[in-house]
Structure formats: structure tokens, C-alpha cells
Amino acid sequence: MAVAIIGAGQTKFGTRKDVNMPELAWEAIKQAMQTANVEQKDIDFMVVGNAGMWSSEAAVPALMYEYGKFENVGSMRVEAACATGNAAIRVGYTAIESGEADAVLILGVEKMQESPNPTVIELIGRFGSYFWEFENLGLTFPGYYAIHATAYMAKYGATEEDFAKVAVKNHHYGAKNPYAQFQREIKLEQALNAPYVAWPFKLFDCSPITDGSAAVILASEEKVKEWGIEEKIWIHSQGVGTGTANLSRRESFTSLKSASYAAEVAYKKAGIDIDAPYKYLDGADVHDCFTAAEVIAYEDLRFAKRGEGVQLVREEQTYIGGRIPVNVDGGLKAKGHPIGATGVSQAVEAWKQLLSKAENGRQVDVKNGRYLAHNVGGTGHYSYVTIYGLEKPR
Amino acid sequence: MEDLRKAAETNIKEYGFPVAIDEKSGALQWVDMRELHLKYIISIENIQEFFEGLRDGKLLATKCKKCGELFFPPQKDCPTCMDSDMEWFELKKEGVLETLTVIFVRPPSFSAYEPYTVAIAKLDDGVRVTAWLRGDPQKVRPGQRVKIEIAKRKEGYLMYEIVPVEG
């Protein structure tokens, strides 16, 4: 049973002191339901991606059932660190594919700024292996990825300037996205002169702490027909991978094994040539929680050969007009990274791009009718690669 | 956070509720009156030899008696053999530095420390160890020889560290 996204919504990402958790979530849910033209009674399952801890409300599915007046709907909250959003999509997608559900509301929501920044830094550090990496070593999230950045620099000769260029690109597009946390361009020097967070990462190499929410409505092929839905995109395939909890149990720090595996699975299922997948895609949202992570993603996703991801940056091949536009919504870097909402927001972006609804200056050319989302939890602990398309998958 | 808490205390008296205005947005916030402290109690019953080893200056891994696989961090069970017949194996404490980072922005629970370097080394025995690197991070580079030393942390207990080998 093919599965379509028939509606999508997303809030402004950033500091959202103006709303509480259910108000923030409802902003996205309302848009998703209105674009899909569905009512509460049409939804038979609700999956909420929310990592939580830093925010007060934990029973978010029930909270939104109550706030949104849903009825006769199954629900759950899922967590896969920073891949929480795409994990929520995974649950809804498989529920419809198996015939257990017809129309699923996927909500990703995070209110990280209900806690002060130091507390959030403390909590995010615990997304690795708590006992062996945090308790005695105090690894922070920028630190986990910086370990990869250092290895990449040593192996392939990339520089801090190369990484800064990723931030410049993503801010360039963030400036054109009214939903982005940072709607301003930055200069290379600005990024290079910022203070270190975790060497070699400086402030502009890191995604921010964000409040935000995104939602999509998934529907079965049958419902798409029954409701006469015109505006939709389809889930063509999804690959899911897992990595070790401890970084020391990994063979390589210049690749995320879980992500390259997830990509391979997704490409194969969608019938995409894994040697040149960019020829089949119009663009991609990749998990740029840190700048170097975007470069490594280019290689794990086979947009470039091993060691050549940095060339794509230098040649500006991931701007619109290049080999493949990447993160033209600003990415996690500039759009913001509300953990549970990020993966769902990537789906919203695929929906907008493929249906040519993106804002001026950041709309890609839709030629192949396919868009990719790459969502990573932890440092490759969980990887989700999802391929969305305009045509119904065969 | 401290400012918000103070404002809330004042506002309890003046306004009647623990509220404060967010400076940037001007939006009214309720300042939570409940607080949670987390401190976990974690079982090390089955890897206590590892800590005894540190006391004797040794870095120990577990080794499956059947297939010979080494596990570091040490673990109780061999998932390949579906067996728990393990022995303790003393690692040689020498190897090669693979990668590192310097943590400048530290979690509050590490605020007593200056920026610290976290590194990963591959030991000659084949396992990798993640640990703090002692010394100037600017003087080391991936690929160089390192050793493991056991030293007391600021908190007073023993921990293994990665130390660059001179020359």
C-alpha cells in the first residue's frame, strides 16, 4: 500500500516564548490538516516525535489529543535522539503500508528553550553512551561531531574554512526562509572569527537550540483516491540504520556507517543508481547539526566519493544550480534544530520543494520529481534516509 | 535563569504568581516552582575487575574464552557465542592517536574543569579507547604514538588517560 504526504505544516523555528507546548504543536497540526483538507475524525493514528527532557510536558500525544479534540485515535511518542522526527514518520509509514492505519498525523515538536542553555548542553551530552563517554569524559554534542571533523581534516586535508563555507551556504538559504531561526546571511570571516565551542568547531559550525514544531498527514493510496487528493507527494523508500553507542567501537570517524547503510537501502528500494544518486534527485535535506556533518553526509549519501565531499563545498556544488542543492531551507544550521521536529520539517521541505511551493530564491528546479531527507540521531546512532517523490511509487 | 527565578519570587509577592517577563520577546512566562536533580545509581557488579585493575595500574578488557574477541569498554556477555564465559585481559596501554577535540563549552557538571581534550586512540591490542588527552592538544596530531596512563581526576578518583609519547 503506497503512502502519501497529503498535508504539511510547520511553525516558525527559533525562540518561541510566545507559546506553550500544545499551542506550538497546534500551529503545525492545524496547517497540516488544512492543507490536507482532513478533519480530526479522519485521523486514525497519531505519532509524536519528541525527545523531551528539557521541556515540561512529557505526555505530548495525549496532550494534543485533548487540545486538538481528536477521537478514536491510537497514539504514541517516539524517540531516536535527533532522528526522532523521521522515526515518527517511520512508524506512520509502516502502519499505513501494513494496512493497520489509513491516515496518520505525524507531529514533531520540541520546546528546548523551556530549560536554560547550560541544562540543555548537559542533557544533549547524554545522547552518546552515558557511562563511558559522558560520566567521566564530559563529551558534548559538538564534541562528538568535532571528533569526526578532526578525523576528516587529518585524512582528507579539509580545513576549518571549508566547514565554515557550509555555514555560509546554509545561512544564505536560511535568510530566504521565513520559518528559519536565523534569517540572515553570514560572512566567511565572521564564521572563522567566532569563538570555539569544541575545536575545530566554532559557534557558526553548530546548529542552535531551538523551539519548533512540524507536522505532516500521511494517507494510504486508497484514501488519496477516496478523498480525491490532488496535491501530494509519496514516500518512495526509507532506509534505517543503527550505529554503536560508543564511538570507540567504530572503525571509522570519517563516515557514519548507519547513514551509508540507510542510504544504500533507500536507494535500492527506490531503484536509484547508488553510484550517481544525485542524478535522480532534485535536492536534499541532510542532517547538518554541525558543518562537518554535512560534508560527511555528502559522502555517506554518495553525492561525492570518499574524501571528495569537501570538493562539493569548495566548488559550491550544493547551491541551487550545482550538482545537487542541499539544505536550501537553511538546514539545521540556520533553520534551527528542534530535535523532534527536525525530521518532520525535512518532510515538510520535500513537500514544499516537490510541489514548487518554496519561497523565492530557494526553490529548486523540479526535474526528477524526487527529494531526499537524511536525518541522523546521536552521532550516527540512528540514521534515517527517506526518499520522497511526485509520482506514485511502483 | 537566576534572574527569572528572582523575578518570579518578587512577582509571587507583588503579582500573586511565580511569573516573569521574557526580556527578548516580552512574553509572560511561568517560572517552574518544581526542580529535578538527576543522579543515577549504575551497577558495575559485573565489571568490577575493571576498576580493581585501574587501582593496580592496569587497563583491562574482557575476552571471550570461546572466540577470543576483546571487548572495550568491557562487557559481561559475548553476543557472538551467546556465552558469558569471559576472562579479563590486560591491554598493553600503547597505541596510535586517531582523533581528538577540545571541549570549550562545557556542561555545568564539568564547569570545575578548564577546557579539556577528548581523544580516541587505537591500542596495539586492537581495541579503541576514548579518554581525556593529557598535555597540549596543539602539539599532537592523529597518527602519532600514545600511551595510556592511569591518574587521579580532580574529583579524587582514578581514570585512564591518553598521553602522547615524546619523540
UniProtKB/TrEMBL annotation, chain A:
CDD domains: SCP-x_thiolase
Domain Thiolase N-terminal: residue ranges: 3-186
Species this chain originates from: Geoglobus acetivorans
InterPro entries, A to Z: Thiolase, Thiolase-like, Thiolase_C_2, Thiolase_N
Thiolase C-terminal domain location: 241-389
Name under which the protein is recorded: Acetyl-CoA C-acyltransferase
Keywords: Acyltransferase, Isoprene biosynthesis, Transferase
Record flagged with keyword RNA-binding: no
TrEMBL record, chain B:
Protein's name in the database: 3-hydroxybutyryl-CoA epimerase
Matches recorded under PANTHER family: BLR3430 PROTEIN, DNA-BINDING PROTEIN
Organism: Geoglobus acetivorans
Domain ChsH2 C-terminal OB-fold, chain residue ranges per copy: 88-149
Domain named ChsH2 rubredoxin-like zinc ribbon: residues: 51-86
Cited Pfam families: OB_ChsH2_C (PF01796), zf-ChsH2 (PF12172)
Bilayer-spanning residue ranges: none
